[in-house]
Design goal:
alpha+beta, 2,3-Dihydroxybiphenyl 1,2-Dioxygenase, domain 1, 3 helices, 8 strands, about 40% strand, globular, binds cobalt (II) ion
Length: about 140
């Protein structure tokens, strides 16, 4: 698999609204997109720093995995996402063959129209890892 860069860091927050003054006012990075991803039960807010984005994740429901994460571990870094140049589907096959435990066995559509898949933190040193790519049209 060919990783070009860290596409984004996902950060679990209770409230995007409450975090905007830190990101926009203190760090001086502008939120350029807020989007609800229904099937993941999250509201996302995006900031761009160089090639890498920060994705704030706010649960939209109590049974959201983000709500459960915050309950257990508090707010903070939730996952790291790599941009895969040669395709997420290929990368999944490759790492599964090397014994990595997968959460998603096939790419699915995530925020910002990316194709994404998660690797299990048991196989990645405790870091929930997302592989993603911009779908080729
Ligand atoms: Co993500």
């Amino acid at each position: 698999m060919n990783i070009s860069h860290i596409e984004h860091l996902g950060i679990a927050v209770k409230s995007i609204e409450e975090q905007l003054p830190y990101y926009e006012g203190i760090l001086g990075v502008k939120c350029y997109n807020i989007e609800v991803v229904e099937d993941q039960k999250v509201k996302t807010a995006f900031f761009k720093i160089g090639q890498t984005k920060i994705e704030l994740l706010e649960p939209t429901s109590e049974d959201s995995t983000i709500a459960k994460f915050i309950e257990k571990r508090g707010e903070g870094i939730h996952h790291m996402a790599f941009c895969i140049e040669d395709g997420v589907a290929n990368a999944l096959k490759e790492v599964e063959a090397k014994g990595v435990k997968l959460i998603d066995h096939a790419p699915r559509r995530g925020a910002e129209g990316l194709d994404i898949a998660f690797l299990h933190p048991k196989s990645t040193g405790g870091v929930l890892t997302e592989l993603c790519e911009t779908p080729k049209k």
